[in-house]
Structure formats: structure tokens, C-alpha cells
Amino acid sequence: MYRKTIEERFEELMTSEEGLSSEEAKRRLEEDGFNQIEDEEPQSVIGHFAMSFMSVASLILLGIAGAYYFLHDIWNAIVILGIVILHSLISTFQYARTKGALEALKDLSTPRAMVMRDGRPVNVRVTELVKGDVVMLEAGSVIPADGRLIETHNLQVVESALTGETAPIDKQVDFMADQNIPLADRLNMVYASSPVSYGRGKFVVTATGMNTEIGKIAFILLKDENKKTPLQLRLDSLSKSLCIIAVFVAAAVFGIGLLQYRLIDEMVFGALALAIAIAPKGLGTVSKSVLALGIKRLSKKNAIIRSQATVETLGCTTVICADKTGTLTQNIMSVTKVAGFADSNEGLIRASALNNDVQMREDGYHLGDPTEVALVNYALSQEMNIEEERGKYPRVGEIPFDASRKLMSTVHQTEDGYIQYVKGGLDEILARSTMIRKGDQTLEMTSQMRYLISEKNEEMASEGLRVLAIAEAKRDQIEQLHERDLTFLGLLGLMDSPRENAKESVRLCRRAGIIPVMITGDHFMTAQAIAMELGIYEADQGHKILTGKELDLLSDQELAAQIEDVRVYAKISPEQKLRIVDAWKSRDHVVAMTDGGVSSTDALRRADIGVAKGQAGSDISRSAADLLIMDDDFSTIVTSVEEGRGIYENVRRTLKYILSCNLGMALLSVVSAALGLAFPLVPVQILWIHLVSSALPALALGVEPSERNAMMRPPRPVSEGIFTKRKVFLTVFDGVLVAGIAFVAYQFGLMQSVDAARTMTFLTIGFSHIAFAFSSRSRGSVFNRNLFANTSFYVSVGLSGVMLFLIGFIPALHPLFRVVPIDAAQWIFIAGLSVIPLLVSEIRKIFIQG
Q: Domain extents for the chain?
């Protein structure tokens, strides 16, 4: 690859600098397949359904059904087999929803690349790249495929994933004739997964997918999709403990039965069914499903979560460090003020027209960085023909922008030499300027002029404007390009108004116990004006503003000591953001950090939640982030935190509901056995309640929308377990309540017969679980929220209730579930008992919410 010229490579790949046609790209995609690393295929829905019968609980139940069959109890065998199949269908439905949510998320988070198609640049998914595509690179890009470089401008690439070398490599387009050049020394080649650290360039794709160098060692990129989150690990531990309890309870009931000389087969089947009912099967699966569906819901609100563990952390967020430009502001810039000192602003206008990487479009929607687009629009407004100027003064050199220099230079050929235009921060430009264009002359820069320029800069910044300084320099040669001995041209003030919803989002953060912090590279006065307008900075509340220079004078300990008072950071470098994150974390805060820059990936990785921008962010920042906000909007971060709280609460309410129902049945069985009473439920009834009647509402509880007061509570401590002491108390309370009303139904039915008692107990527990599910929808009163916000809940409880009613009402089903006909008075009694959990729970919430 590297030993061929660009022309030879184009000829071999049957392409050109204009790229492929859309039709040819489509044909090659069908022929070569997608540009992706082949990962392990997730289990199919049918496969999951088949494997659900291989779980320990299912095998035990199938064994019980088989035993009933050999004991010539065909109906019991058929019913238990039917329950197992129905439960497997419910489980498979849950799996299918989870799988679909995760696949949709994966599709949404697929990165994109700028490619030449049909002779013009288009944005395509990297998975759709094919051999022969011409791809454009810039600082912050992650190279999407292997390829031969055809154009470079100070291009530097980090190839540590392949070579282990972390230092950037200077790339070139020159032909390399030597044979057997090591991969690390192939300077005219680029390789998939390597980030661009500096400069820009173009390459033609030579290999995609598993044929890339990284594809050949694909295990480096494969992710462990089955890696469990902290929540799932806690649930696994809880499940093991509860399984042990289930065994002891079943053994106790079995032992009491033996002492009472009950039938051995009745005791064995009853104890096994009880153990299966009490043991909380698949709590980890339940949590994974709830988290996945919550992630899917977030994706519809422009927030892409990169891992399920992030959802758990979102609800604990105490600080959001947001960059100003594009997140708190609209990132739609326009030049509203010009401060030039010459008679004519022609130099400023021409610099605006030429010193940029904007791609011009006929429709006026030019592509590029919003700041540079604003400069181009300013030049156009001054009736300058951009394309004509670019043709008259072709670019022959450049020094790309980087965050440490805060400058960008371009060099253009003129009739008598070269002219260099430089734009950037005022401090950086002034430090390099020795001359100034004033009136119709070029004069030496004096200290008085520096003072006047600085005064003008502060005046513009105090108005909330982002100020850019512009300078030029005439050069005789460009072999040793530098940014010294500049001639100052003037200042451009750009307005970037705050987002309309940003102020309300800041207020919502404060109400939720979250500290909003603004970080920017802009001037102190600009940062202060915007922060005051948004309500982030309030001097009378003791808030402080810290500049990058002031931060450098502080030790880590001194910074940590005042970190909670500093709400705005101005003139901050990417390296300093890392110190800010560390200082907050040293005070036990959970930090979300948002940034889209190339140099801020360390800060994103160090933050508890790294947030990248979907529109203005770089590929590198997106790959380092935990959360991707597709609209770059601060309010989307706040919405994500709110949803994160709601999703975690859904996991809790679902688990609390399941455990309360299980505890109720366990207590009822133990108390009945201890009192020498007949089993209140037969195995088939226990299994129906556990695997069907309770399972359906539990599924629906996992997709409840966030409560309206979710952001009126302080963040959840990271160290807080799934169940607080209050949650444990409420779970036990609800379990005792369910057991109590079931025991009342059992005693009422015993006045008629044991079968009637079991029928009333079975129906009362089933319907009380449905009523209890209504109460479980909210920490507060369920009547204070939108009752119809979760339509799937009504479908689930309706289906559960109808099936339970039909079992009790249709005579043909009575033998299958060991129930007997009951009269109207008994139905009314069951209904009255079943609503007690809802009424008691709602009364309890007046005093204790949770």
C-alpha cells in the first residue's frame, strides 16, 4: 500500500480525488460488507425463548409437571407446563424489548465521517465506508478505516492502539520505496481507530472492517457486552441471599408438614413451588431491562447513554461543569461589533474571508466551525467575494488552531510574496504583535496602544461578546513558518446568545441540589456577563470567578478548599479542566463534565460522567464520553439527570414490588403451616401468581416516566444501596399487609371448605397484587401524577386481572387451577380485601413516602 504513488492507488481502487459515485459506493458496500469489527452476535429472541426452559427454576417446574404426569395427575401437569411456557413468553418479550432498545442505541451512536461522494463532501456513517472512498480528516477525528494519504496539512496521528507508541506521528503523502517498512514508520498511511491529534488531511480508503490492521487483532476492540454494572452485582448478591432464605422457608414448611403427618407428595410439591415463588429469579435481568428501556427513552430526548452503568451514576450527579459555547449558548454566532484602528477595515475583512476552513455552499448554509462561519458571513456582508479572494490569494501554508496556543494561522500567496493572517485570543495576538495598522499607516506598537486595545477588549467582553483579535504579517518565505512580528489589525466582537431554556435548566439544577458551573476559554468579562444572565454566578451569594492564570497560582489543596464557591472559570485550558474535575471529586462530589474539544478527553474520562457534544464535538471526545448530547444543549444534560433518577427509581420500585409480593406469600405459608392449617395455596396457584399475575405488572412498573418531583429532591448518595432502611421497612410492611389480608380471606373461606378457602386466598392475593402495583407507581400519592402516562401499565394489569377473573369465573377452568365456584358475596369480600393494600399504602404515604 505505502509503496505505491497516489495515482497508482487511485487507479487500483478505481477512484479519484472526487471520490466514488453514490451508486458505486452502494455496490461496493453490498459486495464487501459494512466497515465494522465483527462482534459476538447477541442471542436471538427464539434462542432466548428456547434457553429459558434450561434455567434451574424452569427445570424444577418441568420436573414437577413430569412427576404429576407419572402420578396420573394429567391436569396439574398440563397447567404447570402451560405456566412455564407462558412465563417463558413473558421473559422473552422482556428480552426482545431490551435487545431492541440496545440495538437502537448502538445504531444512534454510530460515528460519522466526511466523505467525497459524487464530487462533493457528504456526511456518512463510518460503517458505510468502502474501499475507494476519499475521507477528510481534521484534529479530533478518529480514523474510520485504513487508507493511503493523498493530502496533509501538519497532520499528526496517534497510533498507540497498533504500535504502543503514544507520541503523535507526523504524516506525509510522499511515496515510500523501501520494502518491509514497519507499520509504525509507514508515514503515508493511516489506520482505523487512530485519533488525529493535530492538523488535517485526506486519504483514500484501502481496507475496511475486519481487513483493517485493527480488525486483524479485533480482540483489542471487542467490548464485554455482558459486563455487569454495580447495580447488577448488588442484585446478584441480594438474589443469592434471598435464594438461601427461600430454601430455609421451604424446608421449614416441609418439616412442619412432616411433623403433622401430611402427604409426602403434597409436601414435596408444595415446598418446591413455594421455594420457586419466594426466590427472586432474574433480578439482574429485570434491572438490565429497566435500564435498557430507560436508555431508549433518553435517546428520544437527544441523549445517548454509552453504558448502563452511566444511568446509575446520573441520578447521583451533584455538579455539572458545562462549557459555555454551544452548550449554555446557542452556538449561532454573528459579528456585531468591529474595532479597527485603520481608515479602512479591508484587512480585517480579508482576514475573515481567508483565515478559516469553512466550506462554502450556494444555499448560504456554509459548513464549518460556528466562529469561522460568523467571520465568513461578516466578510460577505461587507460585499467581499469569498471564492474570488481564495482564488486570488491561494492558501499555501497553515498552522492549525490548538487549545494551548489559542491561535490559527494561514499563509496565502500574493503577487510579491506571502501574507500570513492570524486570529485568536487578544493576549496571544498582542504578545506577538510589534506593529499596528492605524489610520493609513503601519506604526510601531506602543504600550499606550496596547492599553487602549485592552480597554476596548474589556468593553466588548463586558457586553457578553466573544472577542477575537486579528493580525497579519508579510513573509518572504514560508519554510520556517512562525507567528512572530505580527501587525495588529483589530478586534471582532461575536454575539452568541444564551439558549432560551438554559436559565430554567440552571434553576432546575439548583432546586435539585446540583451545582451548575460554567467553564470557558473566553475573557473574564464575557464569562461573567453570560453567567450572571443565566443565574450561574451571583456575587451576593459568595460565588467566585477564577481565571486560568489565577488557577495556576493555586495548589491542588488550595483549589479544593474553595472549589464549591467558584461557579465560573474563564480563560481555561484543557489541562486545567482536569484539575477542576479532580478538585470537585476530592470533595466527594459526583461530577458531570461537558466538552467537545480535542484536548479535553482526559477531563471527560476523569469525570464521573463525561459528556460530549453530538454536533460540535470531536470524534475523540465522543469516544471518551459516557453521555452524548445530540443537540449540544445544556438542558439535555439536566433532562438526562432527571431521567437517570427516574430510571433508578423504576428499578427500585420494581424490585420492591416483586419482593413484597414474594414476602407476602412466604409469610402466609409459614404462618398457616405453623398453625396446623391446610396449605393456603396449591402449587399451581402459587406458580400462577408468581410467574404470571405478579410478573406482568412488574414489567410495566419498569417503564414508568419520571415523577414530577424527581428534581425537587437532593441527589442520591453513591454509597446508598438499592434498599435504604426505609425501603426495607416499607417492603416488609407491604409484605405483611398482603399476607394479612390473604390470611383473612383464607379464614373466611374455611367457613365453607378448604377448597373455597384456597380459592378466595388465590384470588385475593392475585387482585391485591394488582392493587398494590397501582400504589407502587409513585413514591407519593399515585393520584397526584398523570394516571395515563404509562399506558403499558394498564395493558399489563388489565391482562393480569382479566385472566385471574376468568380463572375464578369460568367453570371449565376451575379444575385446572384447583378452584371452586364462589358466590357474589364472596366476590365482593375479595374485592374489598384486594383494595386494602392500595388504600393503606396511600394513607401511609401521607406520613412516610418511598
A: 1-223, 303-329+498-632, 335-495, 642-847
